[in-house]
Amino acid sequence: MTYKHTLILDNHLGVNSRVDIEFEASDNEVDGIYTLESTSHLNSDDLFNLQEWLEQDAKEWELVRPFKL
């Protein structure tokens, strides 16, 4: 299923970032990301932790499509 979610996080520079993500998931685990848009620069550490932060918010995900593309 395809979901979307917005994370508000402090990036590696300590800057508050809004990160909009559209992704594929099943059983509250992210299988892959379709789109990722951030209001500020994200580095590799931010991206590395992104999946964990996203999965922690699983109860807040918004369903976009109930089927895989």
What does this entry look like structurally?
With about 70 residues, the chain is an alpha+beta fold. The protein contains one helix and four strands. It has one helix spanning about 45-55; strands at about 1-10, 15-25, 30-40, 60-65. Strands 3-2-1-4 form a four-stranded antiparallel β-sheet. A hairpin with a 2-residue loop joins strand 2 (about 15-25) and strand 3 (about 30-40). It is elongated. The model has no long low-confidence stretch (mean pLDDT about 90).
What's a quick, concise take on this entry?
This protein has one helix at residues 44-56; strands at 2-10, 16-26, 29-38, 62-65. With 69 residues, it is of the alpha+beta class.
Strand fraction band? over 45%
* Strands ordered across the widest β-sheet: 3-2-1-4
Shape, principal axes of CA atoms: elongated
Whole-number radius of gyration? Answer: 12 Å
For the sheet with most strands, the description reads:
4 strands, antiparallel
What's the SSE blueprint?
Blueprint (H helix, E strand, L loop, with lengths): L1 E9 L5 E11 L2 E10 L5 H13 L5 E4 L4
Antiparallel strand pairs: 1-2, 1-4, 2-3
Q: Any key phrases for this structure?
A:
single chain; 69 residues; alpha+beta; 4-stranded antiparallel beta sheet; 1 helix; elongated
